[in-house]
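INFO batch 0412 | record 1 of 1 | parsing
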Amino acid sequence: MEELLQDFIYYLTVEKGLSQNTLDCYKRDISSYLKFLKEKNREVKNADRQVIAEYLQYMRSKGHADSTVSRNMASLRSFYQFLMEDNILSDNPTFQVESPRIEKKLPRVLSTDEVDRLLAQPSSNGIIGVRDKAMLELLYASGIRVSELVSLEVTDFNPEVGFLRCRGKGKKERIVPIGSVAVDRVQEYLYRCRGKLAREETEKALFVNQHGKRLTRQGFWKILKKYARKARIAGEITPHTLRHSFATHLLENGADLRSVQEMLGHSDISTTQVYTQITRRKIREIYDKTHPRA
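INFO prediction complete | emitting C-alpha cells
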C-alpha cells in the first residue's frame, strides 16, 4: 500500500504539477486512510463503499471537523481515480459516498477606506517603510498571493508596460497588470532602498529582509499585522484579505468575472464566483439602508 501512495504522489508531482503544500496534504490524508485499512486488516484493492463510509465515521469520532473530513474524502476520490486510470482497480469505491456538506464562509473583505488607511501606514522616510509601502501597494494592486509576492524576482517587474510576471500554484506563470501608484512605489523602493538591503549582487529576490535575503511569507505576515494594528482595522487580517479585497473591489466597479479569474490565476471560474456573492450581499445592504420601502 505504501508503494501505491508513492506512485500517487509521484503522479501528482509530475503530471499535475501541484505545490509542495498540496502534496503534503494528499500524502497526510492518504497515509491516515492506509493506516485505518491496516488496522481493519483490509487492502486498498478490496475496500468497498462501506469501508469508505466507516473511515469517514471514524474521522468524525476522532473529533475532526466536517471541513477536514470533506477534504479527506476529496483526497480519497483522487487517489482511487488514479488507481483506476492506472488499471489497478476497475471500480471506484468512493462513488456514491457523500461528503459532509460544508457551509462556505464568505471571505473577509476590507472597505476602500480601510485599504487606504492600511496603505498609508508605512513611512516613506526610512528604507524599511519604503519597502513595506511598495509591497502593500503591489499586493493590493495585483491581487497576487503572498507566496507569489515573496517569490518575485527583480526581472519580474516591468514598469514600462505596468505588468508583473508571477508564478502561481503548480509553477504556472501568468502576467498581471498593476496600476501606476504601485509601479511608482516599487520603482522608488528599487532606486532608493533595495541596493542598501540586498548586500549581495547575486540576490535575485525583488523584496528582501533586513539581512539582505528573500523575504518569507511569515515575515510579510508580521509586517501586515503591524500596519493593520496601526491603521486600527478591527478583526483578523491576513495577506489573503488584500487578495479578496482586490477581487471584490474590481467586481464592484464593473470588472467582468473572466478577467478577474485570469488576474487571480484561478483555474476554475467557480472559485472566482464567491466574490459575486460578496458584491450581491453589499448591494442588498445598500438597498436595505437607502430605499424608502425596503
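INFO post-check: The chain has a mean pLDDT of 86.
INFO record closed
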